[in-house]
Amino acid sequence: MTRRLLELLQHPRTLPELAEALGLEEGTLRLLLSRLAAAGYVGEAFEGSKACGVACASCSLKRLCPAAGKPQAQIPTVYRLTEKGKKALSSGA
Predict the structure, then answer these.
(1) Any idea where the domains of the chain sit in the sequence?
(2) Which fold has domain 2-91?
(3) 3-state secondary structure labels for all residues of 48-82
């Protein structure tokens, strides 16, 4: 399950997208994501996040990003892999 989640997060996704793809309830998935985030494998996909690292001009999430000036209430949380998560996935861990 964790490996499949990391595979899905190679492309940034929202919690509902991940829950549907994995067949999990959002609450269960939120717990798993929080544990992976605490370990440094995933994070939020916005500029200023430890997980981001993408320049705003070329970011595919610019339309969702709080840095783009949208009100926070309209922005879903989007998750992505961190560098640590990418390394774990590529090593087959």
Answers:
(1) 2-91
(2) Arc Repressor Mutant, subunit A (1.10.10)
(3) CCCCCCCCHHHCCCCCCCHHHCCCHHHCCCEEEEC
